[in-house]
Structures are given as C-alpha cells and as structure tokens.
From TrEMBL:
Transmembrane segments: none
Full protein name: SMI1/KNR4 family protein
Annotated ranges, domain Knr4/Smi1-like: 2-37
One Pfam short name: SMI1_KNR4
C-alpha cells in the first residue's frame, strides 16, 4: 500500500494504526504475491 492509502485507511477507521502494522502495510502488504522458485 502507498502512504496515501494507509492514511486514507486510518481516516476511515478514525484512528491511527500501530506502527508495526503500518510498516507491514507499507513494505510487505502490497497485494502482489512474491515470485516462487521451483
């Protein structure tokens, strides 16, 4: 997710997200699966 998307989510929820979860969403939670190696 982008910073803008996270801020919009926080606004919709009416509260800030915990720092670790926020970091997860910004760096890992991009919604795209990681490539796999066989």
């Amino acid at each position: 997710m982008s910073e803008e998307q996270v801020r919009a989510l926080e606004a919709n929820l009416g509260t800030g997200l915990p720092a670790q979860y926020r970091s997860f969403l910004l760096h890992v939670g991009a919604g795209e699966p990681a490539p796999t190696t066989v």
